[in-house]
Amino acid sequence: MALTILGTLAAMPVLTSLGGVVLAVALAALPGATRSSAGIPRLWRSVYRPLVGTVLISIPIGLGLAWSRHR
User: Structurally, how many domains does the chain consist of?
Assistant: First the structure.
């Protein structure tokens, strides 16, 4: 996440994209990790997964906006 912020502040969309890809990979791994978590209530998992999905969808949109801003 720090790469994304730094890339945005420095007007370097390549750095922003690198941070976005790292964030997307990390977020994509999390729902599978919570699948078998017996200690997490089902309600929290049912809220968490759509939230992660929404963020995963918004990452490429944000990266597209970052690139379009610097053309």
Answer: 1
